């Protein structure tokens, strides 16, 4: 079942109206995993280097298929790109990012993978900074707990690390 | 986390620079451990090894530095020895692009000739692009080869000798940014760096240093502590700040300052020739900050000669922001020119003025200048009058203050008092 999402003026009802209004160009992005469609301004969509290249090379037809990214992740990504295209005030953006990235590690990883795949550097850097900030100043055990990582080091490796890094435990 | 591709794990890990975080990251999981060699930057804060027992900082740093493939940035604020430094640079010297070290040599006595000095060891960082050194003792020329890729050199808190510095600068022919702050021991500093763009110098001592800068690409120059300045090539110079807190400024010999947008002159005493010369050259400035307390060519501290208001502003037509203090403000006056003034006289671009008044003497003249600024500054948006530390044991001080308040009241949209 196709779902049509308009990321733009919520009062507009039909695609015809969007095409006729203003000089802005619009693109439709379709996540191929779950067939969700998003209508986005071109200026927002080209924050993704991948989409930008497609548009510049003239390969972007009316609907751009986006594999590997699920619908709800795409929605969030578009929200991020839209904010970063519209807003130039550093402070406002910083506050927005803090709120936006207030997610658990799994959601953050999903965003990282998608941002990397779509080549949206600003988003990738923001998410990575967030993940890094979550673990700075924390011990190995704490890092594993926060980011939900399994300790798969062998007993030897653990012992070796312990020896090399014993200075970290001296307080 | 398991689904995360290796490249992204490495990317997360690369955001860890603090050595302690890196050490902990190393013990998180296999993939994290495997990402360690790809780190690009390591930072050792001042007190990271404060409670160390067993290994030495040199060793620990060496072990961490050695486990990385290509280290690009190394920052060490904790204490270390030249032996340690030599060992790290033997591994990563040619890869390092940014190096920042707290040398802590200032307490050292005569350099021991047995082991090479920390400065000498730096030779191994042959491809470094940015070098920042804190607490440097450079009284002998360092045994450096050429740092051809070095663009940024910063030395903060140093004891230098003229020939040593000259030798060091010769080894960095491609510098674009040079910063020597809190440096003592220098008397004569000739700088001939063909690509220098920004130069920031702060020399401690008696303020009697002599400086010459010959760099045709120079855009920004800030100097504190020199009495003689010679800067012939100035066609790119946009920002200039000359200050001398401890000595007299005798001579400023500059080329044309046609590109200069911002000028700041500060100090206790400048020879009149120097003041008038630099103000005359800076005819295109948009921003002017003037805080020199006295003039005079010899020991005697003299007040400034009267400077005609109309003439001053006619010579600085592009002035947008003007900040003037005490004695220099007191010297501005109308002479008689405003009576016969050209009705077209105007201070066209002036938007913001800050005036600091130190004494209530010559109140009438000062009020008149303030009023003229408002009258002829058609675009004036903001005037701040600072009445700090005014010598107020004279009753005229109160009268003066009242005058200023009235003036403010009449122009309340523009004026504020501090």
From TrEMBL, chain B:
Gene3D superfamilies documented for this protein: Ribonuclease Inhibitor
Pfam families: LRR_At5g56370
InterPro entries linked to this entry: At1g61320/At1g61330-like, LRR_dom_sf, LRR_FXL15/At3g58940/PEG3-like
Domain named F-box/LRR-repeat protein 15/At3g58940/PEG3-like LRR: residues: 122-224
Name the record gives this protein: F-box/LRR-repeat protein 15/At3g58940/PEG3-like LRR domain-containing protein
């Amino acid at each position: 079942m196709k779902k049509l999402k308009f990321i733009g003026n919520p009062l507009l009802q039909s695609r015809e109206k969007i095409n006729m209004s203003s000089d802005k160009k619009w693109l439709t992005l379709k996540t191929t995993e779950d067939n969700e469609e998003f209508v986005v301004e071109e200026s927002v969509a080209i924050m993704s280097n991948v989409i930008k290249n497609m548009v510049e090379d003239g390969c972007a037809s009316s609907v751009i298929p986006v594999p590997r990214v699920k619908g709800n992740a795409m929605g969030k990504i578009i929200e991020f790109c839209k904010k970063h295209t519209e807003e130039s005030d550093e402070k406002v953006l910083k506050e927005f990012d803090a709120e936006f990235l207030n997610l658990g590690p799994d959601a953050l990883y999903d965003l990282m993978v998608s941002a990397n795949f779509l080549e949206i550097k600003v988003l990738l850097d923001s998410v990575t900074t967030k993940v890094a900030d979550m673990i700075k100043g924390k011990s190995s055990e704490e890092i594993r707990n926060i980011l939900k990582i399994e300790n798969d080091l062998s007993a030897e490796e653990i012992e070796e690390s312990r020896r090399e890094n014993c200075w970290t435990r001296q307080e | 986390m398991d689904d995360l591709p290796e490249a992204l794990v490495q990317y997360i890990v690369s955001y860890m620079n603090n050595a302690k975080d890196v050490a902990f990251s190393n013990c998180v999981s296999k993939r994290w451990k495997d990402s360690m060699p790809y780190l690009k930057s390591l930072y050792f804060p001042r007190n990271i090894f404060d409670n160390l027992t067993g290994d030495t900082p040199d060793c620990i740093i060496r072990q961490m530095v050695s486990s990385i493939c290509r280290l690009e940035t190394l920052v060490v604020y904790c204490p270390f020895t030249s032996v340690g430094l030599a060992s790290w640079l033997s591994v990563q010297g040619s890869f390092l692009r940014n190096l920042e070290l707290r040398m802590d040599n200032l307490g050292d006595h005569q350099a021991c000739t047995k082991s090479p000095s920390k400065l000498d060891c730096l030779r191994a960082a042959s491809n470094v692009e940015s070098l920042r050194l804190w607490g440097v003792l450079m009284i002998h020329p360092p045994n450096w080869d050429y740092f051809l890729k070095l663009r940024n050199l910063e030395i903060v808190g140093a004891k230098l000798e003229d020939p040593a510095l000259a030798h060091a600068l010769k080894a960095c022919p491609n510098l674009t940014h040079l910063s020597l702050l809190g440096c003592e021991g220098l008397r004569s500093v000739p700088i001939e760096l063909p690509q220098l763009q920004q130069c920031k110098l702060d020399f401690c001592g008696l303020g009697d240093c002599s400086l010459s800068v010959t760099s045709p690409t120079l855009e920004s120059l800030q100097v504190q502590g020199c009495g003689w300045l010679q800067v012939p090539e100035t066609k790119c110079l946009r920002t200039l700040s000359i200050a001398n807190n401890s000595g007299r400024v005798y001579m400023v010999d500059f080329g044309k300052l046609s590109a200069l947008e911002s000028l700041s002159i500060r100090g206790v005493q400048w020879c009149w020739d120097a003041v008038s010369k630099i103000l005359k050259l800076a005819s295109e400035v948009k921003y002017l900050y003037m805080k020199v307390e006295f003039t005079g060519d010899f020991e005697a501290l003299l007040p400034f000669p009267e400077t005609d208001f109309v003439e001053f502003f006619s010579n600085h037509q592009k002035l947008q922001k003007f900040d003037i203090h005490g004695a220099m403000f007191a010297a501005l006056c109308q002479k008689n020119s405003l009576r016969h003034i050209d009705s077209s006289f105007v201070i066209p671009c002036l938007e913001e003025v800050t005036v600091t008044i130190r004494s209530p003497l010559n109140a009438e003249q000062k009020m008149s200048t303030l009023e003229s600024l408002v009258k002829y500054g058609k675009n004036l948006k903001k005037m701040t009058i600072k009445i700090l530390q005014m010598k107020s044991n004279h009753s005229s001080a109160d009268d003066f203050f009242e005058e200023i308040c009235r003036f403010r009241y009449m122009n309340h949209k523009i004026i504020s008092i501090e």
